[in-house]
């Protein structure tokens, strides 16, 4: 019998946060090990735990999984959050890839040089409101259902609520022109598993601060 999944990463959001979100949405408890020294990271490489010398690392079902997309796909499939057929999976994949493009911008923002921060922040707002959020506003309006694909909670919905909340942290009124997304946010936030994950005592990580950035740089680049 397998134990809880074990997540090995930094004590912050980064590429592990969507994995935390998806496990939480599936109602799966997990354990975490946080890296704060370069020696810990090099030991994982030496032990053969990091296939491409990259984090995140998730130990689940007897596997040591790397590559965020592969980990998320496995969790989504395992916990029935990946559609009922290939067509639904294709739409989930498209939505997830689009959301990931946006969340990658947000994830990298704290590592921007000071002189680029204002420009990068403006770019996040522009892309969110003109490229990404309109797609999901239209999808929800056209099919008139509570979720993006198949009227059932999927990986795409989980990543979208994560992205919405991350953008709102920087631009609180970002959803003012997106009534469907406002309603979606309310529905998702009130789902028991999501509501639990949004509580202060949950494994959800706060926005990255200077200490998080310094730790990541120290461990990965020294």
Automatic annotation (TrEMBL):
<feature type="domain" description="GST N-terminal">
    <location>
        <begin position="3"/>
        <end position="83"/>
    </location>
</feature>
<dbReference type="InterPro" id="IPR040079">
    <property type="entry name" value="Glutathione_S-Trfase"/>
</dbReference>
<dbReference type="InterPro" id="IPR004045">
    <property type="entry name" value="Glutathione_S-Trfase_N"/>
</dbReference>
<feature type="domain" description="GST C-terminal">
    <location>
        <begin position="85"/>
        <end position="207"/>
    </location>
</feature>
<dbReference type="InterPro" id="IPR004046">
    <property type="entry name" value="GST_C"/>
</dbReference>
<comment type="similarity">
    <text>Belongs to the GST superfamily. Alpha family.</text>
</comment>
<dbReference type="InterPro" id="IPR003080">
    <property type="entry name" value="GST_alpha"/>
</dbReference>
<dbReference type="InterPro" id="IPR036282">
    <property type="entry name" value="Glutathione-S-Trfase_C_sf"/>
</dbReference>
<dbReference type="GO" id="GO:0006749">
    <property type="term" value="P:glutathione metabolic process"/>
</dbReference>
<dbReference type="InterPro" id="IPR036249">
    <property type="entry name" value="Thioredoxin-like_sf"/>
</dbReference>
<dbReference type="GO" id="GO:0004364">
    <property type="term" value="F:glutathione transferase activity"/>
</dbReference>
<protein>
    <recommendedName>
        <fullName>glutathione transferase</fullName>
        <ecNumber>2.5.1.18</ecNumber>
    </recommendedName>
</protein>
<keyword id="KW-0808">Transferase</keyword>
<dbReference type="Pfam" id="PF02798">
    <property type="entry name" value="GST_N"/>
</dbReference>
<dbReference type="InterPro" id="IPR010987">
    <property type="entry name" value="Glutathione-S-Trfase_C-like"/>
</dbReference>
<dbReference type="Pfam" id="PF14497">
    <property type="entry name" value="GST_C_3"/>
</dbReference>
<dbReference type="InterPro" id="IPR050213">
    <property type="entry name" value="GST_superfamily"/>
</dbReference>
């Amino acid at each position: 019998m397998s134990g809880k999944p074990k997540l090995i990463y930094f004590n912050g959001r980064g590429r592990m946060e969507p994995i935390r979100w998806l496990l939480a949405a599936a109602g799966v408890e997990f354990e975490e090990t946080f890296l704060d020294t370069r020696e810990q990271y090099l030991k994982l490489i030496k032990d053969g735990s990091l296939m491409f010398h990259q984090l995140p690392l998730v130990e689940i079902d007897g596997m040591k999984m790397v590559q965020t997309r592969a980990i998320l796909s496995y969790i989504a499939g395992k916990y029935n959050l990946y559609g009922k057929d290939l067509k639904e999976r294709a739409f989930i994949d498209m939505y997830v890839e689009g959301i990931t493009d946006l969340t990658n911008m947000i994830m990298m923002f704290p590592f921007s040089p000071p002189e680029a921060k204002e420009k990068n922040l403006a770019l996040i707002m522009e892309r969110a409101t003109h490229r990404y959020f309109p797609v999901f506003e239209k999808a929800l309006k056209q099919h008139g259902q509570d979720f993006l694909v198949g009227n059932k909670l999927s990986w795409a919905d989980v990543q979208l609520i994560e992205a919405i909340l991350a953008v709102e942290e920087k631009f609180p009124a970002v959803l003012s022109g997106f009534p469907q997304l406002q309603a979606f946010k309310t529905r998702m936030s009130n789902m028991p598993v999501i509501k639990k994950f949004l509580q202060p005592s949950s494994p959800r990580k706060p926005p990255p601060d200077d200490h998080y950035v310094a730790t990541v740089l120290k461990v990965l680049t020294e």
